[in-house]
Design brief:
This protein is about 15% helix and about 40% strand. It is α+β, with helices and mostly antiparallel strands.
Length: about 250
Amino acid sequence: MRQRRFYFHAETNRRTKTLLSLTRVGNSKNLPTRHGFRQAFDYYGNWKALHYAVKEAFKNVILSVVAGEKDFSVFVISDRLESFPASLRLTAMNFTGDTLNASESTMMVDANAVRKAEKNNIAAFTKGNRLTSLLVKSEIVDTSGKVLDKNIFYFVPQKNLSLPQPDVTCAISKTKEGKTETVLHSTKLAKNVYLFTSIDGRFSDNYFDLLPDEEKTVYFQSNKQVPADSLKNDLQIITLAESYEH
């Protein structure tokens, strides 16, 4: 149990570190202070970056990647009370979406435990490419094909990443259930995507990494009816790379 807690909190801290890159994104209410992070909600009750990070970190099945000087290991952390079969998918890719290496293995996820699922040599798995321009995506998938968790791991600090200028596009529409749906896409890595609108409400997800040529669907939740055109005209999309220009 002690080992499990160590990796669990290590993963929580890893995901929360993404907040440090937001010092140029958003207003001062969203920034960390020397006394620790402010509350997870702003003055108006909107979710801050911390809230989204903790929400992801406290799912009942998560992946954690730990890298040393030569190797990196993937851990599966499960809160479920029963073991279950799953597949672990690893993909090394550059920031423009080219796949450098990929692997898939089947495993039994142990109940209420931490398990080291895989260990790889960094240079071998990344094919010797520059670590400042690549990432490793890990996914744990159940037998029905559902992705239980996705981990995006970078081998160098965010300040050392050679981030491209992303080209994020979005399509906003109303679903049959009346939800306001936003589908985002980019041909290049868009790191720490921040969705902002002055309209009262919140997005189902925010402050996330958008991988090349992968679509991300988020929903805007509000206590009032929000026309799709209103959100489209008011929506601002800021990424870490673009924030360096300001």
